[in-house]
Amino acid sequence: MHSSLPYSFNRISHPTNLPPIKRERERDMVLTALISPALVQWSFLVCGSLGFVLLWQAAKLIDRLWWHPRRLERALRAEGLRGTSYRFLVGDVIDYERRSKEARSRSMPLRCHNIAPLVAPLLHDIVREHGKACICWFGPYPKVISDPEQTKEVMSNKFGHFEKLKFPALSRLLAGGVATYEGEQWVKHRRILNPAFHLEKLKLMMPAFSTCCQELVSRWTQSLGSDGTYEVDVCPEFQRLTGDVISRTAFGSNYAEGARIFQLQSEQTARILARVKKIIIPGYLSLPTRNNRRMSEINNEIESILLNLIGERMQAMQEGENTKNDLLGLMLESNMRGTDENGQCISGMTIDEVVEECKLFYFAGTETTSILLTWTMVILSMHPEWQDRAREEVLGLFGKNKIEYEGFGRLKTCR
Predict the structure, then answer these.
(1) Per-residue model confidence (pLDDT) at position 5
(2) 184 and 277 share a domain?
(3) How high is the pLDDT of residue 7?
(4) In this predicted structure, what is the pLDDT of residue 181?
């Protein structure tokens, strides 16, 4: 009996005579029995955590798109403001686009100055119904329309109560810079940029202004027909003019170097405006759609052009060339002064911030000024007698000489 016990024990502990497939099956069963409880516990834990995160994010999204706008609406109405009611996600965007499309389909009488129903028909109706102090909704964000004096008071407030709307993805694609900053960052950038707009600096820009205008007038003169007339679309002409002025005075380049930036920014603006209803959807600009990919390509190309322009100027400054005291020179000077020995920007603008400011000034400076000049030409064409008065005044003061800054103070009609 004792001699057979080890043999039986060895057979149980080391079943070497079992077929390989059966041994592997038994081993898998043992491993499954050991691992399954732990695996199930971890699965429940991971799924529970994931579910909690999703619920938390969903609650935040619902609060952002519904409860927060509703609280704002109640607070504004408690202050006596009236206007449209908030509608989930879209607000008044769909109505705004529909009314604008209807207004553009109608022609405006030539000498009509009542442009609000054509330019912003929905806002015009809201103000007419609820008064100047009223609200409308751009997606989940309320817009308060008021009279110019109240707007000036709010925008010049020194206590920081007015918070700017933040659209990080949209600002990145179009333009960021000082227009989107608040607090200390806004103060720092304004302090760096302000010297570029001092009166003495603006006086030094007069020759560049004069040169750009002379080139425009010369180009128009050469296009005159045999009868001494020439029909011209002044809007693109003034876009070129303002672009040339900004390129020369702010960035020390010329229109040819900035033309590609203007072209790309115009395309970017058109793409954004064509999809204004979708942009308010959270995360829409991050989707890999054909339009979003193209907008990202446009932004990358603009930044690449600006980085080349910045690199050339920085190299010239490091080689001892004058900073030219223009906008770009002031920004790069702040970057170089505020950079430590490790290449970290401590107090000045970073290169990324310089790029954003360049995008902003190329975009905002060109568009706003060219539209103002275009509308001025439209008004002058409607009132030829004012053309005659302005022409007589300018020729009487300056003759055919170059216009100088000191003579502006004597202008009355053209002031």
Answers:
(1) 44
(2) yes
(3) 42
(4) 85
Same domain, 195 and 227: yes
3-state SS, residue 339: strand
The helix (H) or strand (E) run that includes residue 262 is: helix 255-274
Domain assignment of residue 10, given as a range = 1-76
Contacts 24+ apart (CB under 8 A), 329-336: 329/252, 330/192, 330/193, 330/195, 330/196, 331/192, 331/193, 331/357, 334/192
What is the predicted pLDDT for the residue at 135?
92
Residue 75 CA to residue 292 CA, distance in Å, equals: 36
Structure tokens at 127: 């103000």
pLDDT digits (tens, 9 = 90+) for 156-190: 765 566 777 777 778 888 888 888 888 888 888 88
**Predicted local confidence at residue 38, as pLDDT:** 60
Residue matched to tokens 């876009």 = 239
Q: Which residues of the chain have pLDDT under 50?
A: 1-14, 18
End-to-end CA distance of the chain: 125
Task: Give the Å distances, CA to CA, from 269 to 302, 320, 334.
Answer: 13, 38, 30
Shared-domain flag, residues 179 and 127: no
224 and 335 in contact (C-beta within 8 Å)?
no
CA distances from residue 280 to 283, 333, 365, 389 in whole angstroms, order as listed: 9, 38, 26, 48
CATH code for position 364: 1.10.630.10
Residue reference for tokens 């568009």 = 367
pTM for the complete prediction?
0.73
Please name the residue that has the structure tokens 């707009």: 197
Q: In what order do the strands lie in the sheet with 82-83?
A: 82-83, 134-138, 141-145
- Contact (CB, 8 A) for 256 and 73: no
Predicted pLDDT at 33: 56
What per-residue confidence (pLDDT) applies to 26? 62
